Each structure stands twice: as structure tokens, then as C-alpha cells.
């Protein structure tokens, strides 16, 4: 298996080099040259696998044996050993048509832990093997930063800098990042929104001389490793619901998604042969993805702060990966589309093209009020407390559910991370002890302007301490 860029100007790379590259050197995103397709009988055999064994089995199709099997098992085992549930991503049945897969049992109580705990172990492994300092650089709308920091804090040979939008993440998200006082961690609170932070990251990774000089590595979902690790839980969920009861029904996934990474992981699983019926994109009032699916217009709109801040994103990085498969893996067409987006500020699909998009996805953007209403409804009807992102997912599920279908909705965060929304519902929740402790800790962060030159100065000072 080799990996290529969606824009076609990068020589094929192996798995490790692909992960280390992060954003492709031509500005595109790395994808596998071909997607392995799993036969139905093989899928059936996977039902008995533990989460770690399923992870290793799926990764074996992609890693080219570049990591010895025993080493890969050790990395995966360590990655999931500190999850609070033995199944890693357990599934809760709500009723005969709805299951919720809980992705928040990792150390930072969010789905990003599933991929980033492994990524931290992977980068540490590569740093030691190659005797090279690794500088991880990323932007976060809240959860990625905390999960990435937790995955690499204190590890030798690795430094991490995370940009987050100043005062636009939840209080718990902010504390999870900024109460870390390890010498290899730098938190920059940027006066702007997530898209501003993400744009700076792409600029810095696009400066190939700067990227090479400082050994920059990506942890955002522009990195294919993130996508692949998240693909595992789609297989796990599909294979572990009660299919004896539902074998005649079609199975959908409703996925809270802002940067298109989580939903693209489901798209990849589907292309690998997982018989998903509908992939439902759940967004909030920053609904660029809903507008794209429903009207064919991919155009960033006005930024809105919502009760689900991890999805407060207008420019979805992983959209380009979908575009690559949409145009039949034609890198020249992808480049043409991305140039149109850059010059005209939008991409528009019509006719048969729009019909194809709508055959791949359904989408719904929940309003702030719908989000709160759904939290109240499920607490009252099922005694299940949703976080606001999962509430968006449930809203989308209710919008698109058919009579002959069941849905697995991804619960992307623990509600304690977003108590601002829960309080508005007049619900009092009990915080996990790990989150309670955050409020008494001092914070360590630098508040900076939305200015690439200032970010570079901060990074060069941080890296000079190696």
C-alpha cells in the first residue's frame, strides 16, 4: 500500500512517511492508492474480535508491515489501556431503532482520544526509532487539543503546540488544555475563531522550508492516521449491535461533524465494504456541510458561536478527501475544484453531481434551540444525558430515520465537557472526578493575536528550548 496526494503532485509514500508528512507537500491530503475491500464473510469473522484486535486487523491492510506486528500491538494496547471502559467504545441501546456509541471513555472524555492516544504513542515510537525531535503543531475547536496534549505530554523527543480560538471553547475544554504545565507543551489562545487557527496551521505546513527545519508533524484530521483510527469504531459498532434482532433492517450512522473527518472515516469504512445504509452528517448553525448536501453549494458562511463549539467550523478540511473520490480519484479535477474554491469562494454542484452527493450523505444542521430541546427530551424520556454535539446527532437521526432502519448515533463527548448547555436545560449533572479537579488548577497559555508572524515567533522561541 502506497499513499498519494489528492492533488497528485507528491510521489507515492509509505505509511510512516505519510503520517509524518501530515498535510501533503502540494497542499493536498494524503489518501491510499487503493482502498482494500473486505468480503462479507470476513466481516462476519471479525465479530468475535476485541477492539484492539479489530484495530490491528484493519491497520494491517494499511501499514505495509513497516511497523513490526509485536510493536504495533504494543502501541495499540498502551493507547487503549487508559480508557475507562473495557470495550473502548461501548454501545448503549436506547430503543429498537436507536443505539448510541459512546466515544468519550478516553482520558479527555471526547472521541478525539480514540485516534490521538494512538497517534501520541506512534509519534513517540517513530521519534525513538529515527532519533529525531518531533514538533507537533495543531489547531483545535476544543477537543483535539486536549486529546493531543494528553497523548504526548511528558514524552521524550516530542513537543506540541496547540492553537485554540480565544474564549470560543467550553470552559472544561480550555482547562483540559491549559492546566498542563509540562515543558513540552505550548498552548496559544488565538484571538479569532477555529477557521482562523486552522488557516495559520495550513500556512505553516505549506511553508516547506519551515516545516522541514522544525520537523513539523500534524495531529489534525488532515493526517490520514486520524481518519484510519476512527474508521475502526464504525466497524466495531456495526459488528456489535444486536444484529440478530435487526438483521432485516438497514443500518445508518448519524455523525456530529464539523471538519468532515469523523464522517469521512465512516465513508472510508463504507468504501471498505461495511454495508452502511445512510451516512447522516449532523451539524449545528455553522451548517456549510448541510447546505452542501441539500443544495450543492459549498461556501463558507458567517461564523456563529453555538452550544456545540467543537462543530463551530466553516471550512471543513477533510472535504477535499471526499471530493477526490467524488471525481473518480482524478487529482487534476480536485486541483481544479480547489482552485475554484480559492478564487471564487465556493464550489457548486448541480444536476447529476448533486444527486450523487445526496446518494452519499444526508445532512441536517440543528439550531441552538433544537439542540437544547433534544437534551431535555432524551433526559426526560430515556434518562440519558446527551452532550450538545450528540444532541445534534440525535436531531439529525430523528429527521432522517426510516421505518425499516436503525441508527447508530456517535456520542462524541461527555456532557460534563459542555455544562454551559446543560445548565441552560436546567439539568444538574455530576462531574467526573477528573473534570472536577481541573477547576482548582492554574492555567498556562499565551493569548496572541490572529497573526501568522506572531505565531512563528512563539514557535521559534518554544523550539529553541530543545
Automatic annotation (TrEMBL):
Superkingdom field: Bacteria
Domain annotation Tryptophan synthase beta chain-like PALP: ranges: 94-324
SUPFAM superfamilies associated with the record: Tryptophan synthase beta subunit-like PLP-dependent enzymes
Residue positions, PTM N6-(pyridoxal phosphate)lysine: 112
UniProt GO molecular function: pyridoxal phosphate binding; threonine synthase activity
Domain Threonine synthase N-terminal: 2-80
Keyword Lyase: yes
Catalyzed chemical reaction(s): O-phospho-L-homoserine + H2O = L-threonine + phosphate
Cofactor: pyridoxal 5'-phosphate
InterPro entries listed in its UniProt record: Ser/Thr_deHydtase_PyrdxlP-BS, Thr_synth_N, Thr_synth_N_sf, Thr_synthase-like, Threonine_Synthase, TrpB-like_PALP, TrpB-like_PALP_sf
Cell cycle keyword on record: no
Enzyme Commission designation: 4.2.3.1
Keywords associated with the record: Amino-acid biosynthesis, Lyase, Pyridoxal phosphate, Threonine biosynthesis
UniProt pathway: Amino-acid biosynthesis; L-threonine biosynthesis; L-threonine from L-aspartate: step 5/5
GO biological-process terms attached to the record: threonine biosynthetic process
UniProt function note: Catalyzes the gamma-elimination of phosphate from L-phosphohomoserine and the beta-addition of water to produce L-threonine.
Similarity comment: Belongs to the threonine synthase family.
PANTHER family: THREONINE SYNTHASE FAMILY MEMBER, THREONINE SYNTHASE-LIKE 2
NCBIfam families (alphabetical): thrC (TIGR00260)
Protein name: Threonine synthase
Gene coding for it: thrC
